[in-house]
Amino acid sequence: MTNAMPKRQEIDVQLTWDTDILFPTPDNYKENLAAYAKQVTAFESNYKGKLTDKDTIVSALTEYEKIVILDSRLSHYAFLPLEVDKMNTELASLANEYDLVSAKARPQRDFLYSELGQLDEAFLLELKEEQPQWAAFFDAILRDKSHQLHPLQEELLSNFAPTFGQPYNNYGVTKFEDMTFENFEANGQTLDNSYVLFENDYELSHDTEIRRNSAAGFYSTLKKYKNTTAATYLSHIKNEQIEARLRGFDNTIDFLLHRQNVSRDLFDRQIDVIMKELAPHMRRYVKLVAKAHGLDKITHADLKISLPSEYNQRITPEESKQFLIDCLGILGEDYVKMIEQSFDERWIDFAQNEGKATGGFCATLYDGPSYILLSWTGLMNEVLVLAHELGHAGHFQLAKKQSVLSYDPSLYFIEAPSTANEVLTCNTLLKNNQDPGFQAYLISELISRTYFHNMVTHLLEAAFQREVYTRLDNEEYLNGDILCQIKLDVIKEFWGEDFEIGDDAGLIWMRQPHYYIGLYPYTYSAGLTIGTAMAKQLEENPEEVVEKWLETLSLGASLSAQDLAKHAGVDVSTDQPLKETIAYVGSLVDKLESLI
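Request: output the structure for the sequence above.
Response:
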């Protein structure tokens, strides 16, 4: 047997992130957790029922900022180590200690929102004008006023918050603790299989036997947990439905979009336009790649591979550092320092190990590092993932110019800085190396990673979500089999009749944790629409655009997603940026055809 995943304790520490930056020891963490509990209790005692005059409100918000910042540090220390070692019971115990304190603390601090929401609108507008550092915070309070419940009802909901988060926890238990994958045979070898190995390596492998055989084994395991995962997912949506109804929304989608401060037409436009207009370009691209690989047919297991190329060499984490500095250096000296800091201070977890979460993410502390999770393969695909996550890091490090209460922008914009980095990285490389073979290789990587991942994989998830929410709001019955059929129908609609999309493809919905974060998947395509436009502007006119782009990132949540895009020079009130992005993908496919 080969390719077994190492245990966490077997990993070179230089490939891991350093969470001791947050607290030097578990005992120090526990001391701060106890202090946090006392701080929140004092906050409730000092301010609950007393938010009636401006001086008291300003004092409360100043104290609340400190509470939010400490809570973020505690929660990241509690849960980041568990993300990379989910079977570690000591880490689970530390996380549980945070959960217990947080469950009690939440209603002790959340009264702030409900009490402010009860105040007169004119009074809140005066506060907003007098305290501009909290303008976005007051805007959110004002926006939510008409959907706010009685303070006692809000307190009850706040007390139930840990229960509402349980479906996501259950999903993680099923995925990381209960699921075990059988070994599979390929090319005369017996290979291990796992979520990380499949999603980060086998699914992208240019070896057809490894790719298809690993997929068959992977989905045979998922199928065994179909009904459990469906029940978990549907219970999560039921929670959202109940809250949407209580708050007076017509449907659950409108409730979730309200949280993002995004209108329904922007959500529907991303799905409808991409399903219709991007699909032909992607079908043409996949057929080109399949022909280059000499495939006898194109199955769903073949869709994510890139063009075969002699340039497809492995890159070490250390090599990727200089690589990305060279590509993203256009963003300025401070941005480069942030990249260097992320490597030198070990913000990044590169390791592949047993019990580690799948995919990638960036988690930024308002008063600390931006932690990045990867499972490093060394492929160009992974370099682009790192560029993506560093885009999040750069965004939130810059957004610290805002109050922690006006810091986190709408999900609609959140993927713009990350995807812009992916496009900018590839555009820089294409500009600097005119070799036809390299150009073909990199264009294929750009399409198969950046545009496939953000505008196909996540967009098909969004189309699936829309159908699921619509059916449930219409009081239709759903179960595991029906969810699989919905997913299969969406995939077949996008790819058409020339591809062999087997029933196993219907199980793909089980792989995505983003379904437990509301309407997150569609925002990847929205962000890439903005990101593509920004990368083009940065390349064509860096002297003027860089400063404007960095300024936009520093605005945090002080503007709506549409206004943030507009501030950067992209008007998403129309479909023009989206159509231009799709046309750009088409031009990449055209160029690839001419090169091969």
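The longest helix spans residues 436-473.
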